[in-house]
Amino acid sequence: IFYMSLDGVEQAEINEIGDVNITKNGEFVKGGVRGDYFRGSITLKKDKIIGLDEGSVEFWFQPYKHNSYSDRNVKFLSIWPPSIGFYIFNGLGPGERPLSMYFTKDDGSLTFIHSSLDVYPGKWYHTVITWEGKEIKVYIDGNKTGESSDSSLHTKYNDGFANQIVFCGEWQGDIYAEFDEIYLYDKALTEDEIKNAYWRYRDKSKLV
Asked: Does the pTM exceed 0.85?
């Protein structure tokens, strides 16, 4: 329902959502996953921009200057409401800060979905997060890295929709992440669809 190539283009190439307010803090850079990419933050804002009963978000990112060995609590994606984040976990030491997702449940507590994946600058990571009812899944580079059936994203804190999605790469002038090829879907992608979404950029001979 929404696609931004970020190949030096300010707006979305596909937009079935309507009038989305798109703001960027950063700059376009040559040589991304395919064409240009964006270094900094991208905010998509619209009332009911995506449903929280079922949907998916897909994007490529790479850390800029930061990594999961020496840094922690570095967020790459934020969806509101409810509070949904995808970030370098706030672990105590090296090896305890993998890529993780959290979301708010009906009782106000947080559920965490931890991967075992550390991240470093200079490498692109293909990320897909899907949700359908209580089934929340995270995929990195075509492989499922974590899942939860603890709670739906549709809670008493929202009306079943999110109003803002931020691909977080800038905070108070500090640039810390880069993004490319952003997609929003109104369905939960299947595992085969996610693998194809990865391989269409990396090796088309492996498409299924």
From this structure: yes
